[in-house]
Task: structure prediction
Amino acid sequence: MSAKRVWILVASVMILVGLTVVTVFANPFSQTSSEDGAHYEEWIGTADTVIGDDPDEDGYTGPVVSSPGVAVPSEGESDLETLPAEPASEGEFRPDELQPEAPEAEPQWSGFYYDFSAGATMRPRASLTNWEYWGGGCLYTTKGYDLLTLPLNLPEGVRIDYLRLYYYDSSTAGNLVAYITIYDGGGGIADLISVVSSGSAGYGYVVSDYVGQVVDNSTYAYVLNVGTGVNNETNRLCGLRVAYRLP
Amino acid sequence: MKKVLRSTCRLGWRIVLVGILLAGLLNAVPIGTVSAALISYEIFSLQIHLPEGARIEYLRLYFYDTNTSHNSIAWITTYDGAGGYTDVVSTQSSGSSGYGQSVSAYFEHIVDNETETYVLNWLPSVSDASMRLMGMRVAYKLPDGAGGWVGYYYLHVAGCTFTPRSSTMEWRYPLAGGVYATSWDHFLPFLRK
Result:
């Protein structure tokens, strides 16, 4: 064997050994925590430890701002006709429905209950959008403009009062925006509320205006939607919390 | 000597060319043609959580269907974590006139969260915007504590919250809370994300 071939062989063996060593030390199958490999920063924001200082908490006595509506909708005008599904059967009750009872007087509402979802559990509405996990339950988008979405399943008849957005926002180019949106399955859509992150100081949360919508699971599907504003780690979605009351 | 060198050079170029062709084929054929042919059998799914002891009675499918040759199918499926599964009930889209809804036949299934996990599945059958999942609604009753049942209660989810079971599947948002399967970019493997 010529000296040239020997050197090629030696170089190949060394590359293989090097790759093996790197793989063994990296041990890609050794993840012991859901947070392994996540990025951390020294400052992880301020937890909301004071109960009663925000309108979506029991004990709050400050002013309550009712929502004037959603300034920027979660989607534009639909290019599709919005038709009532099976219009011929409107007004009839299906086998999976009961005749609705007459509404009672305004019920007494309980204290706050919460539906709290981590940002990392949300997924884009279309596969054109990519995302990355950051750490601490937060994620950010890296490509695309589709909203991130998550079903919101609440008990029938409860009253949705507030939406709280937990975020990391250090971007001066865009803000995160979160919505509660309802769909009727026949092309109808309405944003119940929206809330926008503010500033560029990093971790924070923002509470929406008062919503006051009673959940009607018979007619609507409830969905949490979030737009990240920019496609990099300067804006991260860390969580959504819906405050509701029981009748 | 020159002749040998020239033929060696030609052989080298041939190897490079064949390598490039093989790489192109390996990249394009399996991801593009084969996947696209099988892709309509992909299923979209969503995990659901129902109260223990509830009695599921109906599944309602909200759809948009303008496809004249195929219908989409929805299931409630349970899995036992050991490879076992049961399709509890199914219903499918019908017609080709656009928005519609279909209700399953009556059935009874008592929710048992101790041994089963519950999933909503949807098979689009076609990979384009002519078939869309707009939502599903599960109708169930709760025990009244005296041997009877109260309800109905509903678990109502939008189509846009479903995602495919396999990452080889692409999906798009057609507005109005829906979702549909798509596969056109599988033919462009070099441009895939």
User: Anything to note?
Assistant: Chain B has a mean pLDDT of 83. Chain B touches chain A through 41 residues (CB under 8 Å). The CA atoms of residues 79 and 117 of chain B lie 5 Å apart.
